[in-house]
């Protein structure tokens, strides 16, 4: 990961301000006077945006594919407010890589102070990150990882560890019994999907009594989860006893497909369901015993990103890599060394 010298940026800003004072820049004296009057007016009215005091931040969001994503978007919109000293430019890329890269390019052209990217895919970032670097705009990668290291800081979860937790829990629960497993993966090329697959498979490799029958992408959506599960049922009905869904929305779709096919699941059913995210509704299903284990992926990350930006603003050291803490939850009655037994109290405390 590159290390930009924040002090260099601060130094450049000071030079620009000094040039302005010496008559440099494009404003005529009259225009500059008008600007100053407008700024004074804005300051009096308390409108920080008009006074130019706000830190401008662009957030290139993946899309709106899941409840997790909605919670993450709300978290950014509630954190990067004018009241907190920010002006947020938010783009929902609708899970389209080209749209997301274009959004970043627009942020660069707008000369925003900071760019935050929740990357749809790990690949394809080199050129636009080079452009941000040349423009001197710090970039924070959030939520998911990328292949490049041409950015300033990362804030997100450890998806490999999430997959390992799911695998370890299954090993503990089955205690040596056979598993015939179907996996509904997240979006192709997304680090959240790649990492969970890698982590789970690393545990599966240690269990000769486990067979992964099939693994297909449900694109982190409910409809995707349902479609994949319907096709799995056609191919493997009666042959599987574990379904791993790489997020809660896929799990809802998979449950709908199994309901329609008369297949029982959860603690009292024939099929064990593992999910990821642990959003409010996912945990409701866990409390009700329909999802056996739900591994958390915490969407509340904006405050940490804001702390990194504040440190950069102050020219202070900042963490290059912050891993947001996750846990895991199991249905009532399941004892586990890897996950917490769900209770109504935990559900009531879950805001997203
Ligand atoms: O990157 C985080 C993943 O993306 C979440 O698990 C999923 O729900 C979201 O769409």
Brief rundown of the structure:
With 352 residues, the chain is an alpha/beta fold.
Description:
The protein is of the alpha/beta class and 352 residues long. The chain is built from 13 helices and 13 strands. Helix 7 packs parallel to helix 8. It is elongated. Bound molecules: alpha-L-arabinofuranose. The site of alpha-L-arabinofuranose has 12 residues, from helix 4 and strand 9.
Rounded to the nearest angstrom, the distance between the terminal CA atoms is: 32 Å
Total beta strands = 13
Please identify the oligomeric state.
single chain
Q: What structural class results from the helix and strand content?
A: alpha/beta
Which of globular, elongated, flat, extended, rod-shaped describes the shape? elongated
